[in-house]
Design a protein that fits this description.
The complex is a heterodimer of chains A (168) and B (137).
Chain A (H helix, E strand, L loop, with lengths): L1 H16 L17 H4 L10 E4 L5 E6 L3 E7 L5 H16 L1 H4 L12 E6 H6 L2 H42 L1
Helix pairs in contact in A: 1-6, 3-6
Chain B lengths: L4 H27 L6 H10 L9 H16 L5 H6 L3 H17 L4 H12 L4 H8 L6
Chain lengths: 168, 137
Amino acid sequence: MNKQAFIQTVRETLDAALCIENFPSQIVERHNKPEVETRMNPELILNPVTICRTIHEKVFIEPSVNSVRISIKLKFLDEIDRILVDKFCSWLMKRAEMFGILRRVPVEGYSISLLIENKHVEAKARAKVVNFVVQFLEEIDKEISEMKLDVNSRARVVATQFHQSLLV
Amino acid sequence: MAKDTPALVTKVTQVREQAVVVEEFNAAKGKLASVSEPADKVKILIDGAPVSPYDIPEKQEARKLIFESLLQIKDLGVNSFVNGLSQKQSDVLMKYLYVALETDPENANKFLKIHVAVTKRGVGSIVRVMHEKSLTV
């Protein structure tokens, strides 16, 4: 129930935040940059919101007039979780160009960040962009758990083989 | 003196408006003793909430009182509480919910349920939370 309410809250907040449009730079001629990244005009940056599910897991949404930055902090309860999350997010961020909306470097304090600009929302339907982010949030926990189970089962097999070789 | 006058007038106006906001909040606090239901307490506090651009200590106190009252609302009573709010009250409540979700993650479960109930009426409140940069709680 907590997860459903969290996902629903994130979905509704993204629906409201992704009302973005093309807005060329007011400072530099012929420049059209995401205002949430350049931060040259405070009047174009909207109030950021943080949605926490637990102490360990939260989503930080920074809207602006022509772009939205979404930062996700994934939960990790032990060292193996932390390593798996780091490796998985690093793998995704190295392929940021394929995703289009992924940021190569996460915002400080978060595991992964997405930057959605007006051109993404115009090219793909806004609802689909929201669905992508929500689906990512829903499935990431499952992915990390499966990877952890894989690591544990492989470690068990390796340890068994090692001990057997020692006995013989 | 002439050059300082506009700043002085602004400062005096600001102090007077701050005083009005603080007075309304104190009046709302005074009415709390007469109600026992947490939903009614939240409505009274929202009506007198210190929603303003000023950084005043009453904002912290209002947050504490509203969060405590919101946590006392039973799950089954959330929908009836939210349906009894006006548009303006929903907007103020939404501001407090986002502050709660940021600062009190241990009780996020309850705040998320109330957020879902409020957004059933539309995402207008969320848009106003993001756009109203001067009216903060």
